[in-house]
Design goal:
274 residues; alpha+beta; 2 domains; three-stranded mixed beta sheet; two-stranded antiparallel sheet; 11 strands
């Protein structure tokens, strides 16, 4: 019952802010995102963020809620590194720290829109999970088939959490592929060379033959396509669709455009000949 009251109070707070303040708009919608007890305010400038954050703090107090200033951060995303050099900003007697990256819903976001830090964080968590399961993966009592199931059901989901939104380059794909080969190499163990009669590590082709399931990169591509289909199905009534089809304001800077999530989807569809 407590959570219901908390949700009602938070929803009332969000509506107050959206009605009374101007912020970053996409398809005419103010971008104040809330999930559970986490709030995310998007704006076109530090001044706008400060203004909306102040309104959010005031509206929260009116509904009996309080913003935790210690956990509240703000981040400036711009190609101009000289924008907003202040380390903190104050709103309603509360000081919010400026950061270069932060975690939102387990996903690492950076001020340069880099996916590398997010993947690095997921691989770190995957390595921690792998080390916790080492006793089972090294056990001679478990079959290799059961060990691969442990990898697919326990370790792999930790690494691929949120992978549906990843925009990968070959470098990131290689890092993920190396992680999987290392884990599978431990599961299948070494092999005795027929010529030298010495034990050696399995070659990549041998691991691919032993591991019958799709590799980690193909799993990511499959989930991306599935998520794209889901977003297209829900239509304009959901924010994810409006973000996908929305066009940002302003002019694109000079230089080669960054690799987008849509570009990955097009390449994935070409691979499956859709």
């Amino acid at each position: 019952m407590f959570y219901c009251h908390c949700n009602f109070a938070l929803e009332n707070t969000v509506r107050r802010v959206q009605v009374n303040q101007d912020g970053l708009k996409l398809y005419g919608t103010h971008q104040l995102l809330v999930y559970a007890d986490d709030g995310n305010i998007l704006g076109g400038s530090v001044h706008t963020i400060k203004k909306n954050a102040g309104a959010f703090v005031v509206a929260s107090k009116k509904t009996g809620l309080e913003v935790n200033a210690d956990k509240t951060k703000y981040m400036v995303t711009s190609r101009d590194k000289n924008v907003g050099q202040s380390h903190s900003t104050k709103t309603d007697n509360s000081s919010f720290e400026r950061v270069k990256e932060y975690k939102y819903l387990v996903t690492t976001l950076t001020n340069q829109h880099s996916i590398q830090e997010a993947i690095k964080s997921r691989l770190k968590s995957g390595n921690a999970c792998y080390h916790l399961m080492q006793d089972h993966l090294y056990s001679s009592l478990l079959s290799k088939n059961l060990k691969t199931k442990i990898y697919r059901t326990i370790i792999l989901p930790v690494v691929l959490y949120g992978c549906e939104t990843w925009s990968l380059k070959l470098r990131e794909e290689h890092r993920l592929w190396v992680f999987e080969k290392r884990v599978l190499g431990r599961i299948f163990g070494p092999k005795r060379d027929k010529v030298t009669r010495e034990w050696r590590k399995l070659y990549n082709e041998e691991i691919n033959d032993l591991y019958s399931s799709p590799n980690i990169v193909r799993v990511i591509k499959s989930r991306r396509i599935r998520w794209a289909g889901h977003v297209a199905y829900v239509g304009e009534r959901r924010g994810a669709y409006r973000v996908l089809v929305g066009k940002p304001e302003g002019n694109r800077p000079l230089g080669r455009p960054r690799h987008r999530w849509e570009d990955n989807i097009e390449l994935d569809l070409q691979e499956v000949e859709c």
